Amino acid sequence: MVSFKKTAGAKTAGSAGANPALRSRSSVDEMFGIKGVARLFQANLTHLHPRRDQPRRHFDEAEMMELADSLKSVGQIHPVIVRPHPDISGQWEIVAGERRWRAANMAGWSEILALVTEGDPDEIALVENLQRADLNPIEEAAGIERLIDKHGWTQEAAAQSLSKPRVWVNMTLRLLSLPDAIKQECGAFHKVVPRNTLLEIARLDDEEEQIRLWAKAKTGQLTVRDAKASRIKPQVQQESRPLELVTFLRGLGRVEKSVAGAVKHGTDLRPEERRRLETLKQQIDQMLQQS
Known about the structure:
The protein is α/β, with parallel strands linked by helices. Among the domains are: 20-119, Conserved hypothetical protein from pyrococcus furiosus pfu- 392566-001, ParB domain; 130-232, Orthogonal Bundle (Arc Repressor Mutant, subunit A), CATH 1.10.10.2830. The chain is 53% helix and 9% strand. It is built from 14 helices and 5 strands. The protein has a 5-stranded mixed beta sheet with strand order 1-5-3-4-2, with helices on both faces. The protein is elongated and about 70 Å long. The protein starts with 24 loop residues before the first helix and ends with a helix.
């Protein structure tokens, strides 16, 4: 174990103006919202490794350079949070703070202040990133979904754990239904497209319309009001077709995703469910024959 050493921007415990995070284990736990044993130490950067399933997926190069410059000028203010690496003896896995670790490497540092914890890594990583508003909305949604799957939580339980309203959790998870093309680009454009605009796009049933609005949103030309209007008053095609048919086709993308998910995870149909699906299949076949 590397012993604690004084670094730029950090003072040893007991010195004048000492960092409050170094006062006691209980104060550290309270400050970072971490349950379990915790201790601070100075870690070699080469002994730290990012988590493969950490919530953040997008790292903006310009922001990383700014953070590296900040470390050089004022030092490290917040430690990274780590746990013993599950696969590599004597090494550490970064639970939260990968941006600081990357920036420290860019700044030419060899060590960084780290906080060891035995808390739940998924929960700690997500909570810390949410508190700092570091994640884009898709990363938030994926992190919440991982917590729910891991713990078997309801949305209400997840909301309580994250200190968020249940409706916020529900709407955030809705973002995972967006087309893959939008989810993949969200990291690069999340500062251009407001969260509420993205949520309105996610509430649309028509995938083509979602992609069209996303293309407009990326240029900064789509407001929340515009997106909401597209959802509430869908634009019917110029050709005269029954409203029932148009409504059905606009929701086809969501149906396709639901069916694909059900098939992927296996089906165990009850007699009544099978009968309803067979009836639906017959109606779809009839629709195709008439077209």
